Amino acid sequence: xxxxxxxxxxxxxxxxxxxxxxxxxxxxxxxxxxxxxxxxxxxxxxxxxxxxxxxxxxxxxxxxxxxxxxxxxxxxxxxxxxxxxxxxxxxxxxxxxxxxxxxxxxxxxxxxxxxxxxxxxxxxxxxxxxxxxxxxxxxxxxxxxxxxxxxxxxxxxxxxxxxxxxxxxxxxxxxxxxxxxxxxxxxxxxxxxxxxxxxxxxxxxxxxxxxxxxxxxxxxxx
Length: 222
Prior knowledge:
By secondary structure, this protein is mainly alpha-helical. 41% of the residues lie in helices and 10% in strands.
């Protein structure tokens, strides 16, 4: 009625204008509502992938820490050379902190009739040392270094070089790594070749390899 009276609009025009105004108001309200700030969450696939990546990084970090702890942990193995009058001479790998007694057990123990009075079997071993067992039973032990803690050969062989041309089986048997059988091979070679002209000929004896020759060359003479 106000529009009809004020603006001279008939009833149908007033109704049409009212509909337009109502529609405009609805559209404005809808536009305002849809344009407001909203919190957006990541899709489920993205969240799952992010969670998997975090778990992988945590696991890798834990493994890296464990590996670092293992690499810095004390301990490990040592390698020693057990030679002389033992049942199974050779290179032995032992846990760090092992003693001379452990090296003897790893080599099968000492041979019958061989004394161990010259050995400090309670001494700790160090990596790379050589344990030589060669003191016959009843023979006086060679004096060791003060405190018995220095690395190096343990035990004692003959105090003077043994003559390859005149030694008996028993005398050759006192050499480290030489038993009655190998001593007889030395004598057989001496008999067949008319004696030894140099220590290097000892390499030709059956049963003497490079390592054993290295152990013996300073203990014998032609």
